[in-house]
């Protein structure tokens, strides 16, 4: 550095120090509740933490393991009831309205307006994030749920093909079984059973039927022959899962497909985050396929963070910094590259994304036009929390029962849809 006279150096040092202190004076802490604890999820969560820290704020991690978020929501309720809510929590879909009605969420509308969120988001997404016209949650991404993940090596060993119909699916499952490979990697947890069930309903009945049954909770649709056929197809998958499936975490099921111990997995594209974290390449080491019968449909699951009322200017500013970080174009790209999702902002280029993500983005736009874009019931996007829980339990009971008929299961599911 050039030789500067001492006095000038001192002034420069004082200026630099006061700038830094000014920044620090506004540094605040944000406690964030989330359930991203698997390999791919943790990498994505780390990207959010780094983006916030770059703004000078402190990230207090409040991670509650358990895919699908059931445990996280239980812990959140106890924290809020005891008057000790975190700054932000991973809350999605109708639950945002439920929490807002409790009067515990805070508006981040100033951040949304300053950053023109309305122009950047699909209108349906913006509406989900608002309560009485003000943003109270920041959307992170768009996951597609109706995927089938496949190990092509396993297909080759079994001399089987990637299935596009349910008949082809069961033929491929038989071939994999004969080759000594577990046909379907599954984790026997209610949210995973429900994820598979909703994908089968979409594939057997189509998007309009799915919406009528699992979004509008129409009793006639829920008790219809189509729903019985979907229930039978769903249960027909069970014998192709392995004996140790009960209780298995979703990412350990994905690991079975990664290692070739299993041929296929029904799972949302957070599973792609696991393949990517393991250094696997789409099209070579794994295939991403729309689940049978669902190529023209898209079950969406949008992660978002709802913002809770907190005390202290520094914490409020840090909370606003988090909201701004989540919706920044750069973060939207970085996060989804690790998470397996696509950005929820419509203005983020897809150049860096792989073919699975590009297909997801294309289908997201196409199904928004065709009407085959449906909210995931299994991932808190479609129905009130109480109904989601009741449906999940009814489906899981059916999956685990050796005696329950499809007719009985459908009657239980229809009754569960009336839960309030
Ligand atoms: C979903 C969530 C995803 C992923 C998945 C597995 O509900 O939206 O981001 O975390 O659960 O935990």
TrEMBL record:
It comes from the Bacteria. The keyword Transport applies. One of its GO terms (cellular component) is periplasmic space. InterPro entries: Bact_solute-bd_prot1, SBP. Keywords: Signal, Transport. Its main location: periplasm. The keyword Signal applies. Residues 1-27 form the signal peptide. It is found in: Periplasm. Coiled coil: none annotated. Part of a binding-protein-dependent transport system for a sugar. Belongs to the bacterial solute-binding protein 1 family. This is Probable sugar-binding periplasmic protein. It comes from Pseudacidovorax intermedius.
């Amino acid at each position: 550095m050039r030789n500067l006279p001492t006095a000038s150096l001192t002034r420069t040092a004082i200026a630099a120090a006061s700038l830094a202190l000014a920044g620090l004076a506004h540094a605040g802490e944000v406690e964030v509740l989330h359930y991203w604890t698997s390999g791919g999820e943790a990498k994505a969560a780390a990207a959010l933490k780094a983006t916030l820290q770059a703004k000078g704020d402190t990230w207090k991690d409040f991670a509650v393991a358990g895919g699908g978020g059931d445990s996280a929501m239980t812990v959140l309720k106890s924290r809020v009831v005891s008057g000790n809510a975190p700054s932000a929590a991973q809350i999605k879909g109708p639950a945002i309205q439920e929490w807002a009605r409790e009067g515990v969420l805070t508006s981040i509308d100033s951040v949304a307006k300053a950053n023109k969120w309305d122009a950047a988001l699909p209108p349906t997404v913006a509406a989900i994030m608002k309560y009485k016209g003000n943003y109270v949650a920041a959307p992170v991404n768009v996951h597609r749920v109706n995927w089938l993940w496949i190990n092509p090596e396993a297909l080759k060993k079994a001399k089987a093909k990637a299935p596009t119909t349910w008949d082809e699916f069961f033929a491929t499952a038989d071939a994999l079984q004969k080759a000594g490979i577990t046909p379907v990697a599954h984790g026997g947890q209610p949210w995973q059973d429900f994820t598979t069930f909703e994908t089968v309903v979409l594939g057997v009945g189509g998007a309009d039927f799915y919406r009528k049954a699992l979004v509008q909770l129409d009793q006639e649709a829920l008790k219809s022959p189509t729903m019985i056929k979907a229930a039978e197809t769903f249960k027909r998958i069970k014998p192709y899962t392995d004996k140790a499936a009960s209780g298995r975490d979703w990412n350990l099921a994905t690991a079975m497909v990664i290692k070739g111990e299993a041929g296929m997995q029904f799972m949302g594209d957070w599973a792609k985050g696991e393949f990517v974290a393991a250094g696997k390449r789409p099209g070579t080491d794994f295939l991403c396929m729309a689940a049978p019968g669902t190529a023209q449909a898209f079950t969406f699951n949008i992660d978002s963070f709802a913002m809770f009322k907190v005390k202290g200017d520094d914490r409020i500013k840090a909370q606003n910094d988090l909201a701004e970080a989540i919706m920044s174009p750069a973060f939207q790209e970085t996060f989804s590259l690790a998470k397996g999702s696509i950005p929820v902002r419509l203005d983020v280029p897809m150049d860096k994304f792989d073919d699975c993500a590009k297909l997801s983005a294309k289908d997201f736009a196409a199904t928004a036009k065709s009407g085959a874009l449906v909210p995931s019931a299994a991932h808190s996007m479609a129905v009130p929390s109480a109904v989601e829980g009741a449906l999940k339990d009814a489906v899981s009971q059916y999956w685990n029962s050796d005696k329950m008929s499809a007719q009985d299961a459908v009657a239980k599911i229809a009754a569960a849809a009336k839960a309030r």
